[in-house]
Amino acid sequence: MMKKSSLILSLLLCAASLFAQKADYNIVPLPRSIEADTTKTFTLTADDAISIAATAADTETAQAMERNAAFLHEYLLEEAGLDISIRHADKKAGIQLRLLKGKEQIKADTPSPQDAYRITVNKRGIELAANTPEGIFRAVQSVRKMLVPAVGTSYNQHFKNIATNGVKFDYAVINDAPRFAYRGQHLDCARHFFSTDFTKRYIDLLAMHGINQFHWHLTDDQGWRFEVKSMPELAKKACRREQTVIGHNCGIYDATPYGEGCYYTHEEMRDIVKYAAERYVNIIPEIDLPGHMVAALHVYPELGCTGGPYQVWPIWGVADDVLCVGNPKTLDFLKKVLSELCDVFPSPYIHIGGDESPRVRWKKCPKCQGKMKELGLKREAELQTYVNKELENFLAQRGRSIIGWDETLEGGLSPNAIVMSWRGYEGGIAAAKQKHHVIMTPTSHCYIDYYQLKNTHDQPLAIGGYLPMSKVYSMEPVPSGLTKEEEQYIMGPQCNLWTEYVLSPDHVEYMTLPRLAAMCEVQWLLPEAKDFEQFSKRLDRLQQAYRRLNYKFCRRWE
Ligand code: ACM
Ligand code: ZN
Questions:
Q1: 381 CA → ligand 2 middle, Å
Q2: CA gap 167, 152 in Å, rounded
Q3: Pocket test residue of 287, 421, 422, 443 for ligand 1, highest count of atoms within 8 A of CB
Q4: 423 CB less than 6 Å from ligand 1?
Q5: Same domain membership, residue 159 and residue 249
Q6: Is the Cβ atom of 356 under 6 angstroms away from ligand 1?
Q7: 159 and 246: one domain?
Q8: Beta-sheet pairing, 125-130 with 117-122
Q9: N or C terminus of the chain: which is more exposed, having fewer CB within 10 Å?
Q10: Are β-strands 167-176 and 117-122 bridged in parallel, bridged antiparallel, or unpaired?
Q11: Same structural domain for residues 370 and 269?
Q12: Are 473 and 517 within 8 A, CB to CB?
């Protein structure tokens, strides 16, 4: 017969284990390998500590590790309600952050070894190990997501349970590394402007999903958002349009000025660059040229083939008015802009646009035709290549490479241009065959300005199209028909969010989530590891975190 006291004790233990919160390793993106022993667990409680192992080689690394520890501290508080202290070289601490040196370093099959990490759980606790602070950051993000409560458990209940019983981690060795080195996400802040605070909130989302490149579309026909100190009138006047067409270019206007004062100062952009860098996100700024320039032409009409006047464009679509590339002032203008762009953005890549630039004005413009004659060019498309080559050289002197949309193939690529393939895979295939690097963003799988649900009646107005989350998930960024060598030129994929019809931060989030989660598995997982059904279950849980963080997201998916 069991004694009464031991019966009560075992009942209590049973109840405790019922309410013990378990870290779940099935996160988004799913780690490459998880070897878990579910019979043994390590329990993390508020009495534990995070320790930074004493291995930092220099101040920068030491600071990066301090930040990593601070992020983990913040996430443990947010996701588990645990306020855990940060220590240094304390071997007894339950969580260890350790940089690996020499032979210890992780040798994963990845083009991005700085992102690789390993999480080990055993009786000593939880170790996050990586070759670089960036890898540790990825591990920290993963632990954060492992702590999210199970579907059906409220955060309140989750925190209560953890306060009494801690969080249980199965013993495990988890290894992870991304499939692609380039993992991008784009946002258009030209058609509609988004505050610096919101831009940071968007960068937080990218970091949470292991995305490391933020493609920031800063200028377009309908608005110019980049301050150029040497031309103070530019952003001031070009950021504002008098009115905006209603709906899909219905011909009626809202008679409401938009965008007064809506541009980013250098100080604001530098602050965002720093914020992003601390989260291992590089910002690729885009100045779209020679088309998509009507806002700038409004301020400097002499840079257009007809001389204007031009209004900051109140409609959507492709404008015939583009920069006059026969006018030497145009290159001077662009170099002034790009020079300041380089001052603000340390990115190794600068995006110079190049999409949707009609050549009708160039065909009739004496200056443009004169330039063609002078250079011995046969087709107007080659004029665009002439500009791209000039700018590629200009930027190369500043240590930068150019990225251009796939139209830049039409007049011949400049020698080191990276191609962003958007009208399909074809541009990317052609570029890779020419030994140019490629970023894959085909509309078919990557345009998240399209509707995400088939039934559009209860959806906010979108540009059109239909891109369900399952289709994003199904994307294969490396097309067939390339040799093994050519495949190496595919740097990685990204989703694009154009904002003609996306007016508010809530709407940006709604269009982005959860398709961003699907894209991050395309970016991280090997093709054979992808499984949409399993992913959907992992996403169910991640959505608890979206909800807690107050991100708007589409709650149904197709
Ligand atoms: C684009 O979507 N016009 C690049
Ligand atoms: Zn011209």
A1: 13
A2: 17
A3: 422
A4: no
A5: no
A6: yes
A7: no
A8: antiparallel
A9: N
A10: antiparallel
A11: yes
A12: no
- Ligand 1 pocket mutation pick from 217, 222, 289, 356 by most atoms within 8 angstroms of CB: 356
- 127, 149, 176 - which closes a domain: 176
Q: Is the CB of 405 under 6 A from ligand 1?
A: yes
Please name every residue paired with 239 in a beta bridge, in sequence order, or none if there are none: none
Tens-digit pLDDT profile for residues 488-500 = 999 999 999 999 9
- Asked about 220 being catalytic, the answer comes back as yes
Total count of domains within the chain? 2
Q: Do 163 and 34 lie in a common domain?
A: yes
Residue 282 in domain: yes
Which segments of 53-159 are extended strands (E)? 85-88, 95-99, 117-122, 125-130
For ligand 1, atom 2, the nearest C-alpha belongs to 422
Minimum-distance ligand 1 atom for the alpha carbon of 447: 2
**Cα–Cα distance for residue pair 356/407, rounded to 1 Å:** 7
Q: Domain range holding 117? A: 18-176
**106 lies in a domain?**
yes
Residue among 554, 518, 508 nearest 203 (CA) = 508
> Which residue is closest in CA terms to ligand 1's atom 4?
355
Query: Annotated catalytic, 356?
Result: yes
pLDDT band at 54 (very low <50, low <70, confident <90, very high): confident
Residues 365 and 474 in one domain: yes
Confidence of residue 2 (pLDDT cuts 50, 70, 90): low
178 touches 113 (CB < 8 A):
no
Residue 7 has pLDDT above 80, yes or no: no
Query: Is 119 in the same domain as 219?
Result: no
Instruction: Tell me the CATH number at 54.
Output: 3.30.379.10
- The reply to whether ligand 1 has any atom less than 6 angstroms from the CB of 355 is yes
Contact 501, 461 (CB under 8 A): yes
Position 447 scores a pLDDT of 98
Percentage of residues in the chain having pLDDT higher than 90: 95
Instruction: Kindly give the number of the ligand 1 atom that is closest to the alpha carbon of 420.
Output: 4
CATH number, domain containing residue 196: 3.20.20.80
pLDDT of res. 278: 98
**Cα–Cα–Cα angle for 177, 178, 181, nearest 5°?**
125
